[in-house]
Amino acid sequence: MSRAVALLKHARSVFVLTGAGVSAESGVPTFRGTDGLWRNYSAEQLATPDAFQRDPRLVWEWYHWRQSVILKAEPNLAHQALVMLEQTVENFLLLTQNVDNLHRRAGSKNVLELHGNIFRARCSDCGKIVEYVFAQEEISGLPKCQCGGLLRPDVIWFGETIPADAWHDALDFLNRADVAMICGTSGVVWPAAAIPGIACGRGVKTIEVNVESTAISSIVDVSIIGKAAEVLPDLLERLTAGT
Length: 243
Ligand code: OAD
Known about the structure:
Elements: H1 2-9, E1 13-18, H2 43-46, H3 49-54, H4 56-72, H5 77-88, E2 91-96, H6 102-106, E3 111-113, E4 116-123, E5 129-131, E6 151-155, H7 164-176, E7 179-183, H8 195-201, E8 205-210, E9 222-225, H9 228-240
Helix pairs in contact: 1-9, 5-9
Bound molecules: 2'-O-acetyl adenosine-5-diphosphoribose.
């Protein structure tokens, strides 16, 4: 912990990558944890264009269920600590794989959503993007665009390309960052999984926060094992103590 504090104290530019573990304390299940399955389906089985083409109702049911869980959730102490970190350092960028909007709800400003946002939908035909919150009356039908096309969640599915602008901006910032923090992600889904390696290759100091060791624990400079909602507030308290 003290090494992480020292790295952050001297940092002018901090890059943060987050994953589902950061929202765990808000009651949002992670994908690869023990509660990661929905009706025995994994994310890999449902979050694909093929799955949507085969059974759009099933995929929408999963997203509606996830929306209902997220709507009941509040940002936790980890989200709040990252808001404080943004206010503490000179330059800050938060790249999240989470689609739950909790970073923005907590108050983080410079956020890039790599996998989209669960509260938006996109027309499969005309491509129009709309804000979308599941309404009970839609349970019998599938959500449709004004043009009549089928709406789909505005998220990135397996096999799809991530938003080029967000990825470019993230790498551009990472290039100039002093410290990269990797919080609550298993680090197995690409291209986000490449971030720790890219950071190390560019001499950016890396800090991982996770409840367990991951594939990247051996390459980062500091690996802190613990819940993000406990470790991050502690880190921020030490960082700002006496300043
Ligand atoms: P995962 O479910 O793969 O990993 C969650 C990580 O968080 C694991 O490494 C856990 O050990 C860790 N974790 C769990 N609870 C934690 C806590 N309280 N504090 C800190 N760490 C904790 O989720 P992601 O890595 O986010 O993509 O998954 C990446 C992508 O795979 C997701 O964005 C999603 C999924 O399929 C798509 O749907 C395209």
